[in-house]
Amino acid sequence: MPNITIPAELLPADGRFGSGPSKVRQEAVARLADVAPQLLGTSHRRQGVRDQVRRIREGLRTFFDLPEGYEVALGNGGATLFWDIASHCLIRERSAHAVFGEFSAKFAAAVTATPFLADPVIVESAAGTHPTLAAVDDVDAYALTHCETSTGVAMPVSRPAEGLVLVDATSGAGGLPLDPAEADAYYFSPQKCFGSNGGLWLALLSPTAIARSDEVAATGRYVPAMLDLRIALDNSRLEQTYNTPSIATVFLMAEQVEWMNAQGGLAWAVKDCAAKSGHLYDWAEASDYATPFVADPAQRSNVVCTIDLDERIPAADVNAALRAHGVVDTEAYRTLGRNQLRIAVFPAIDPGDVQRLTAAIDHIAAALDGGAAGTS
Predict the structure, then answer these.
(1) What would you report as the CA-atom Rg of the chain, rounded to the nearest whole angstrom?
(2) What global pTM score does this model have?
(3) Contact (Cβ atoms closer than 8 angstroms) between residue 365 and residue 318
(4) 217-226: pLDDT as tens digits
(5) Contact 159/182 with Cβ under 8 angstroms?
(6) Domain 8-23+265-368 is classified in which CATH homologous superfamily?
């Protein structure tokens, strides 16, 4: 790779653009340091930590303006674990899945491997697009993905038919528009829009989803305690998790939720992320070496943006030059195999830093292309 120096005025003040783990606001870290002597290393079943869980649950209820009867549940293991929770507790017999990338495919594979469920219906589309699910007679749950983090495709959350709607919202929750009444289990992790660390799952559960978990349990199906949604919900109602969480993660999540609510809640976050992603897509459209990977603007994610580069501008060299200057985690998803950048614009990321990032990439591209690369 050529030795490229990026002028200081082109560098983002904060160089974290990863799609997860993502930027954690320094103000939240400072607050954690302030409370650490009273909080870290204390029992998660005592009031200090339970207060932080309460902050999360009440904050998310406000942020998403949850309908009557919806509840916020949480537990250890991340959203990946929730695929198995859904397989054991929410899918009665058979599910249908919209598959359009790495993570939606993994949920379908987890269900396929579950011995007491029928093979799922899989409706698949090529990377860079999303399919549409329609009603299937013998299906009792429909699996959607709000944002496919691997490809930068977003799909609207709407009910395909009668039956539970399970939405993997790991990178979309907190930055994409949502009518929570369109989902029964909208689940995600805190290391994306919610500016914390991984290891937790959170789920917005409808009364129908809660009733389904009771119904499935009544059949006598064996469910390991870590996967039992009823246990997780019972503990959540006590403002705690079933087993010990990372207390730092819980606190940082609570801080981020309250910060986002103070900015204006979901409406603010959606507008903020749309403006930043709009800058990235407009920049790529105007460039003579960059192109939005997702061809249909209506399917482009406003939180995880994927930008293809012309082969004369190797993405590996761009990423290496950025990383040498403290700008990190702009690499494409590892299995997609494209000459591509993947840039997160979650709420914690400053709009000015997104603008400086594109200026820095232009500078690198011009150096790699002998000064020829730029905007058209």
Answers:
(1) 21
(2) 0.96
(3) yes
(4) 999 999 999 9
(5) yes
(6) Aspartate Aminotransferase, domain 1 (3.90.1150.10)
Beta carbons of 173 and 146 less than 8 angstroms apart:
yes
Calculate the alpha carbon distances from 119 to 65, 95, 168, 266, 336 in Å. 35, 8, 19, 36, 26
Sole residue written with tokens 């290496």: 320
What string of DSSP letters covers 122-175? EEE--TT--------TT--EEEEESEETTTTEE------SSSEEEEE-TTTTTT
Tokens of 157: 């959350």
ω into 207 cis (within 30 of 0): no
- Beta-strand pair 304-309/71-76: unpaired
Are 242 and 224 spatial neighbours (Cβ–Cβ below 8 Å)?
Answer: no
Yes or no: say if 133 and 98 are a contact pair by the CB < 8 Å rule: yes
By C-alpha distance, which of 111, 179, 178, 101 is closest to 142?
111
Beta strand extents in 180-314 (DSSP E only)? 185-188, 200-205, 290-292, 304-309
Q: Do 129 and 100 meet the contact criterion of CB atoms below 8 Å apart?
A: yes
Q: Are 200 and 249 contacting, i.e. CB atoms less than 8 angstroms apart?
A: yes
- Residue pair 331/315 in contact by the 8 Å Cβ criterion: yes
Domain ranges of the chain: 8-23+265-368, 28-262
Give the helix ranges, DSSP H, for 40-137: 47-64, 78-89, 102-112
Compute the distance between CA of residue 95 and CA of residue 65 in angstroms, rounded to an integer: 28
Region 28-262: CATH code: 3.40.640.10
| Cβ 138 vs Cβ 111: under 8 Å | no
How do the residues of the chain divide into helix, strand and coil, expressed in percent and rounded to 5? 40, 15, 45
For the segment 168-205, what is each residue's pLDDT rounded down to a tens digit? Answer: 999 999 999 999 999 999 999 999 999 999 999 999 99
